[in-house]
Each structure stands twice: as structure tokens, then as C-alpha cells.
Amino acid sequence: MSEQKGQKGTHMYDVAVIGYGPVGMVTAALLGEAGHSVVVLERYPTLYNLPRAAIFDDETMRTFDRLGISGGLLPTLHVQRNYEWRNGAGELLIEHDFAAVGGQGWAEWYMMYQPYLEDALDGVVRRLENVEIRMDAQVTGVRSTYDGVDIQVDGDGGGAPARAKPSVGEVVSARYVVACDGGNSFTRGALGIGQDDYGFSEPWMVCDFHLTGAADIPKARQVCDPGQPISIISLGPRHHRFSFMLDSEADFPVEREPDRVWARVAAYVDRGQAELVRVATYTFRSLVADRWRSGRILLAGDAAHQMPPFLGQGMCSGVRDAQNLAFKLDAVLRGADDALLDTYQSEREPHVRTIIAKGIELGRVQTMRDPVAAAERDARLIAQREANGRPDKMRFPGLGPGLRDESPQAGHLMPQGRVESHGSEGLFDEVLGRGFVLLVDGRDGAWLDASATEQATGLGVAVHHLTDRRLTTEGITDVGGVYGRWFDETGRAAVLWRPDFYILGTAGVPSDVPALFSTLAMAVEPVQAPATVGERIRP
Fold it and tell me: Would the pTM count as exceeding 0.85?
């Protein structure tokens, strides 16, 4: 960490979020909604306002729904049901299917235009009075102190509200920092954190279009042509992206010329059907930071990991980071032992590494440039498809070691279904809320006893009992059958899941539930009184 000079501020925020892309926005929103004081430091004077990520999944949509933006987003999204991989001759090599309603209660694959998403998330954050957004605030240094982190900030605050304009050389202080400052993270570099490089690095030219007329363009296709690998992806109803692999980054200044771009896409769209929004070059990388935590500073999103885009999981992985960190920081800021934050990387890293490895595997399939090897690949994949039909769905692993026990299903993502309770029907989160949730299979009349219920209340755990469809005056009714099937398939009697939707643990019989509460209590119960507002002001 670098030593900084400058006038030390007197106010200490609970959390400083560095970077205001989707991951920083979700982090700030979740912590702000939990009641903590948050400052956001963004180096650009305005929102980026250009598309980068293109895809998100049902788990990510569940997070967006939690933040209240799902309804407004839906008209801007395209729900994609399949993902094709074809060779240069147009023959189908691989086809992945995606459900209209996935395990999290939402479609499994959404195509988006990122500026619309950022506008929606920005609206959530700006409505929170305890979150301060500082645009045009370039972080130039970070230094740990005895009770927090001092952050050196330069910039004139252009475009920011008067109260949020940083002065040149200002030091902003926070108890914790979450650095969401991208693949070229200043914070990661300042901390001297290295990266594990998987060695997959490819230059691509990304061309984004705004559709102005009818155009019959594939919505999700990888063109595995050894002469020119192409990725074609919808960015929602009115935008589309074509990506072309380059032989070298040095080719970009020539290839980016509009006439050359239009020539490349001529088989799919012409100037009368679309406007060219932008042309950019990206190098697809595969990197994982060695450490995601350094004292009170944590890395999230691309600052912690970068992956090839072939699974559409880059932004999704960052949003998972935000969910994981937010509820743990909430507990720590309320007095829990901050060793809880050590579970962040241990839980998330196996998931990230699995996605990177699978993305590289798919990337090598698509980007094969040797015509002979590509022909062999085509023959093999066509034969496999004809013999086996559609490929197996991609299954991501559960959490690594951390805030979970060793019971069956612990660490896996808890599905979400439709329920009815006291006359209200909808998805579980909408009807019954979020947070730590214990669901007991009460269909046979086995309900949690009073002492365990009292223990749950003390821990802030919402307890619900699944009942028979015929019972409507108490418990919850499993309208879609999701939870009944889950209990029947797993043979468990109760399940406790976390605010990030992952299972902390399960119980074989209701009398085992107190052991789940003990696991939770050891991690989140205060070991010291949380700091009051007065204690956050330095003398």
C-alpha cells in the first residue's frame, strides 16, 4: 500500500466502494439498503454509457429483483432460449438450451444493453440518502490505518453535486473498502497483489449496433470459422453485437474503419437497418487475483477475476461477489468478528475458477484457426450431437469452505419458486422477503418448536413452514411445487439459506435445526458493540 500525503478527512464512512460499474452499483445499493454509510468513488465524470457486458442469468436477475429494478428492466431485455455454435459452412456443432423459467424463478438467459441496466441501478443508489456518489474522483492511493482505510482522491468533481465534489489531494476515510475498479484495478496494483494467469489471451474487435429497421440476425451464435471466428450476440430488442477475433491488436486501427466494419457484417445487416454505435478492441483474458482481501480492503468483480466471455458469466460473477460481500460486511459492521470476511474468497474462488476453465475450453473450440484441426473438430462435434442430442447443461459448483456446514446440499444455490401466503401469491422473495431464511417441510405436521423459533428470531432468521396445498390459513403454499420437489428429492426436513441465496445448511429432522442456528450465530453474532455514528468521527 502506498503512503499518501494530503489533508485527512474527519468523517469515516462505513464502506467506500471504488468503481461505479454494475458491481460497484450493486455493492453500494445492498450496503446502503442495509443502513450503512457508503461513499462511491468513480474516476469518470459520468456513467460510462457504453455497452460492455451483454448477458446475465436468473441468479443475477434475482439480485436485480431484490433491488426493485426487475420490472423496469424487462422491456429492455431479450430472453434467449438457445445458444448456437456453427462452423463456417453454417453446420450446427453445439446447441445449448435455456429455460424460460430457471431455478431462480427467472429466465435462465437475458440479453441486455448495459447502459439501460446502469441507469436502473444508478437510480436505486441515488435514492439512498446514506450513499454518497462522487464522480470524477480518481483514487490515487490507499493506506490502512488502525481502524480503517485512508483513500487518496484527486479530481474536480465535474458533474457531481456540490456536496459530493472531491478536492485535489483529499483523503476519504472508511472502515472498509470494496474495490470494484475493473480489470486494470488501481487498488489491486497499489496493494501489490499478483494474478494467476491461465494463459488464455486473445484480441477481439467488438462492434455494437443500434437496430433502426427489421433485420434477421442470429440472437446468440458463435461462428467457429477458422478463417474468421465471430461472436454474434443480441443486446436486447434494439441493439446487437458482432465480435471478430483479430490476428493481432495491431490490426485494430485499420479494421475499425467503418467501411471495413460494415463489410464484415454485410451478410447479416446493412446501413439501412442499423447504426454503428461503437467499435472497440478487447483482449479476452483469464486471470484470478492471488488475494481478494488485504486487511480492510476487498477486491470484487474484474478487479478480482477476469474470464473469457463465452459463458456470459463475467458480470454475473461480479454480482455474486457483491451479494457475498454485502451481507458479510453488514454483519461485521454490526459487530461480528471480521474473520467472517475471510470466507469471501474461500467461497467464491472455486466457482470463479470453474467458470474460467469452462470458458477457456469453449473458447479454444471456437477460435481454432488451423483448417485441418477445425475440420476434425467439426466432424467430432457433429457426430457427438447426432449421437447424444443436446449437450448437458453447464452446472456451476457450490460454495467453497466458509459460512456453511457440511450437511447435504450446503453451499448450493437454493431454488426459488412461486408461493402463496395469506392471500398473496408470487415468487418467494416477493411474497415473503429476503435475508436469512429457514424453510421447514411442514407438510406432515412437523413444525419448529417454540424455543427454536425464538432462537431464529434472535438471529434475524425468518422462519416459514411449507404446508399442504389445502391449508391456506397458516404456513406457505408451494404453488409451483418447487419446494416440495426439493424436499422430496433431498430427503431433508429443513433448509437455512443466506441473503445471497446460497444454503448455509440443512437438517434431516426439525430437532436438528438449532445446530444450524449455532453455525450462523458463531459467524454473525456481535463479538463487540458496533460502532455508533459518533465513534465513526475521528477526533
Answer: yes
